[in-house]
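yo, Osmoprotectant transport system ATP-binding protein is done. seq:
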Amino acid sequence: MIVADHISKHFNGIEAVKDVSFRVGEGETMVLLGTSGCGKTTTLKMFNRLIEATSGRIEILGKNISDEKPEILRRSIGYVSQNNGLFPHYTVAENIAVVPKLLNWQPGDIQDHTARWLEQLKLPLHFKTKYPGELSGGQQQRVTIARALIADPPVLLLDEPFGALDPVTRASVRKDFAELPALQQKTVVLVTHDVQEALQMGDHICLMDKGSIVQQGTPGDLLNRPVNDFVHAFFGQQLDDISRIYERIKAQG
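structure:
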């Protein structure tokens, strides 16, 4: 579904992403994990061309994304950022309807889908007339998720989608998001610095440092077979607790 083939990104001579390669199968979730400044967000943004790769090739659904116009490409990719990116002068309904309008949906279809997504994300229907500034951070992020999913894109890019929320709200929004039926059919690339979040949500993890992938594999690969001291140190004293969490998650299916 997604192929990153030796992609790199230079900013004014500085190599922010260095020769990164990985594949994400249909319906899988790939997590780009690492500390701030490791290149994970830059890598993610190259997939919807918010940042253009300096070199390398990216394919989505078998097509080289450089052959598509960025605005057309982005209509087929859901995108959720940490800072939600909602238009402050648009109502909730208008924000959610941005992509459907670009796709020339009928007004009645937009209204029906908007109502359905508000319900699925546990937001009252009357919120559709509110503005982002009238909502809490958790409510804003639920609207952002609705906007990303309403047009049923096959690929979803998540850039620290829960990072700006307090721990209680973060856990609630993440749980409701993970339980969405529509998510089961999506191919997802998730950026996070949260180890527990990576283990809970990822089928595969790419641990990054200084623009490069240090190790990639299943959560069990990174936990049980770290390739070097950096990988072991990244998990640090949390390793035993994280292993128990992973085993419990695996046991629950």
